[in-house]
Design goal:
The chain is mainly α and 112 residues long. Helix content is 70%, strand content 0%.
């Protein structure tokens, strides 16, 4: 049976293994950052925040008022981001525009 010292010396004396070169271009894996992608990311964050607060309101009635004001604040931020979009005239995919319209309609229906 080998001792620990023998094994370590054996590892020390063995040649180093060089990793195989990577064939893929690592820099080409990321999508380019465009104004549309930045805007979509902001809107996604705002819409998920609104949905998260709505779920909290339905689940927890103890802090309803504070969550309600948080929801109004999140909806206001969402609408401000949308106003920026209309000023910049960004081109977005059709399915994403439908998602935005659904969220806007939910906000309008609640405020009525």
């Amino acid at each position: 049976m080998e001792s620990m010292r023998d094994r370590l010396e054996k590892l020390k004396n063995s040649p180093w293994r060089v990793p195989n070169p990577v064939d893929k271009d690592v820099t080409g894996m990321h999508k380019p950052v465009t104004p549309e992608s930045v805007f979509i990311k902001k809107l996604d964050k705002a819409m998920s925040n609104i949905e998260q607060i709505r779920k909290k309101i339905l689940a927890d009635s103890d802090s309803y008022l504070s969550l309600f004001y948080e929801l109004r604040k999140a909806e206001k931020e969402f609408l401000e981001i949308l106003n920026d979009k209309e000023e910049k005239e960004l081109l977005l995919p059709e399915h994403y525009l439908n998602k935005i319209e659904d969220t806007k309609n939910k906000i309008r229906n609640i405020k009525k």
